[in-house]
Automatic annotation (TrEMBL):
InterPro entries: KduI, KduI/IolB_isomerase, KduI_N, RmlC-like_jellyroll, RmlC_Cupin_sf. This is 4-deoxy-L-threo-5-hexosulose-uronate ketol-isomerase. Its EC number is 5.3.1.17. Pathway: Glycan metabolism; pectin degradation; 2-dehydro-3-deoxy-D-gluconate from pectin: step 4/5. Belongs to the KduI family. GO terms for biological process: D-galacturonate catabolic process; D-glucuronate catabolic process; pectin catabolic process. Binds 1 zinc ion per subunit. One of its GO terms (molecular function) is 4-deoxy-L-threo-5-hexosulose-uronate ketol-isomerase activity. It comes from Alteromonas confluentis. CDD domains: cupin_KduI_C, cupin_KduI_N. Keywords: Isomerase, Metal-binding, Zinc.
Amino acid sequence: MSTEHEIRYAVGQREVKGYDTQELRDAFLADKLMQEGKIYWIYSHYERFMVGSAVPTNTPLKLETLDDQLKMDFFTARREVGVINVGGTGTITVGDTVYELAREEALYIGMGNEHVEFASNDASQPAKFYLNSAPAHHAYPCKKVGKDDANVLELGSPETCNERKINQLLINTVVDTCQLQMGLTRLAPGSVWNTMPAHQHDRRNEVYFYFDIAEGQAVSHFMGEPKETRHIFVANEQAVLSPPWSIHCGCGTANYAFIWGMAGENLDYDDMDKFPPNELR
């Protein structure tokens, strides 16, 4: 099959306090992304958010509905999809329109687009389409967002090891969406801490997808309640699902990049409750 999926049910704070390492990874780590020749999804019960990937090689991959989960005739019947390419150049065909995405370019696919197909320009260097999806209530137009179209924030400093550039790609100041927001953050050489101070937002979930982690390196992703934190070691091209009650931040053994995606109550990027390092436990 060219499409696979699994389900992750919502887990509360009390349950997580008793989890061992493997239970924590089973609940929150997405470690099967970027399988060549497949579309892969995790259907999460946090905000009905879906995390996935599409890596077409010699033949295109069609975005198919999940009969047992979505119970809709086609995938975007009641959903919107955000795509960011982290591989070679590829194309996404939506209806009769073909969008070419180079590395680190994005595409918003609105509700109601029945035909969506992913392809790579060169099968030996395939596109790696990272996918997020959320329920939608309105059909907004599809829109490609290139690097020059992003809203860019430069935050942090070398002194605190968190100098980074945040590329806000699919947010409400750049493209109209129902609730989905996505962007790409890249840390400068010598910086390893992302998203500091750590934060949570009880009004939505968030997922971090880590990539460009050098061979032999890793990122320790921190989650949990601010006074009851846990960590998950993450390898290249893996993601961590963050419940609304959890903080999310990470520290790598070298610099790296990550894609953040979220959905929920509002579209206010700055709606977060921050916890400085000296308040974490």
